[in-house]
Design brief:
- It is built from 18 helices and no strands.
- About 45% of the residues are buried.
Length: about 375
């Protein structure tokens, strides 16, 4: 299948920060994807929290399984829109590489620890991982990914950090946040695929955990429609098959909605190439109805899952672990590996080290440094 003219074409890539000869059998975006899959940070995602800590159950999503689901949804939509599937997959697989242990709880705690030292943004940290913190090649630090993949990884960025990025790399991935322009369509698509994926799998994990009752989801318009359809068409269906079928139908409806709404937006805007996309308004989007319903679902999950007392109890403990690890390493950097302990930027080095931890490694390190067990 040929790519649309407004897709990201690898032959027209803005290139890498360090020039390299082309690979004989792969284009630049395929090469980026492969480098991400082989990275240390990617393997660590299997033991990083999505909502439920890894040790709370073997079947809950982790950052790795979430990233794979985003990649699958992204590729499906990209194929229908004639966008670059390989670039979508690369961005999806890398977008959470900078996430801390313990999910958003760990991120919030680390951001508070770094408040006087530039803060902590997990999207910016994902970029730091692929630009500097991976040490796999003799010629440079990082993975030396293409501009388009790096652009997609940096989903959000504060103005202050964008200006710092722009000063260090004029015309690079920070500029769009200064100029308020858009990324390429593949990056826009990954943003939306991320939302579709976590709404769906958090329903699944929430019901599996017992924190959300299936019938409570009848309050949510986006899900209740497909739950009723499933029960009407399969009245004998029992157990988790009801949930799986309702989620499958909801996912399909959102995918088709994105395809239809995006096609309509592209027809109206008529971008002639990928650069024209960047100057336009966002073009990969839900219809107005689906946007409202997706927002309602997110609000339901926030109230009933992310702020559930059981989740909040674990969240509080996780934040305590991160804060105490940060304090311990600041006081005695020698407790970290030499590559972090010997850096001059001590606070950022500590943040880099903690952000790279898996949940279970952070718990073990906390026990080693404080003598206190996670479960007391």
């Amino acid at each position: 299948m040929s790519l649309a003219p407004y897709a990201s074409h690898p032959a027209q890539s803005r290139g890498r920060r360090h020039a390299e000869p082309p690979a004989p059998t792969r284009d630049d975006f395929q090469r980026d994807r492969d480098r991400i899959v082989h990275s240390t940070a990617f393997r660590r995602l299997v033991y990083k929290t999505q909502v439920f800590l890894n040790h709370e159950g073997d079947l809950f999503r982790t950052r790795l399984t979430h990233s794979l689901e985003v990649a699958q949804l992204g590729r499906s939509i990209a194929r229908a829109l004639r966008l670059n599937e390989d670039l979508v997959e690369a961005i999806a697989l890398a977008h959470d590489l900078g996430h801390t242990p313990f999910g958003h709880a760990g991120q919030d705690a680390l951001d508070a620890c770094m408040a006087q030292h530039g803060g902590f943004e997990h999207n910016l940290q994902s970029l730091r991982v692929v630009d500097a913190l991976e040490h796999r090649y003799p010629q440079y630090d990082g993975l030396n990914l293409s501009f388009e993949t790096r652009e997609g990884i940096l989903k959000h960025c504060s103005r202050a950090n964008a200006e710092r990025l722009e000063a260090a790399e004029p015309g690079g991935v920070g500029r769009r946040f200064c100029e308020r322009t858009q990324p390429g369509l593949e990056a826009q698509l990954c943003n939306l695929a991320d939302e579709i994926a976590y709404n769906a799998h958090d329903i699944d994990d929430g019901v599996r955990s017992g924190l959300i009752e299936l019938d409570r989801l009848d309050e949510v318009a986006l899900f209740s429609r497909y739950l009723r359809e499933t029960r009407d068409e399969h009245p004998q269906l029992q157990g988790r098959r009801v949930l799986y079928e309702a989620i499958r139908r909801m996912l399909s409806a959102q995918v088709y909605d994105v395809i239809d709404a995006t096609r309509a937006a592209l027809e109206t805007a008529a971008p002639v190439d990928a650069d024209a996309v960047r100057r336009a308004a966002p073009l990969v989007l839900f219809s107005a109805t689906m946007r409202a319903q997706s927002t309602e679902l997110k609000q339901f999950l926030f109230r009933n899952l992310y702020r559930h007392p059981r989740v909040m109890q674990t969240t509080g403990r996780a934040q305590e672990v991160v804060r105490e690890l940060f304090s311990a390493y600041i006081e005695d950097p020698g407790q970290m590996p030499a590559s972090f302990a010997q850096r001059d930027d001590r606070q950022r080095a500590v943040a880099d080290y903690i952000a790279g931890m898996t949940d279970r490694f952070a718990i073990r390190e906390h026990e080693r440094l404080t003598g206190r067990r996670w479960i007391e």
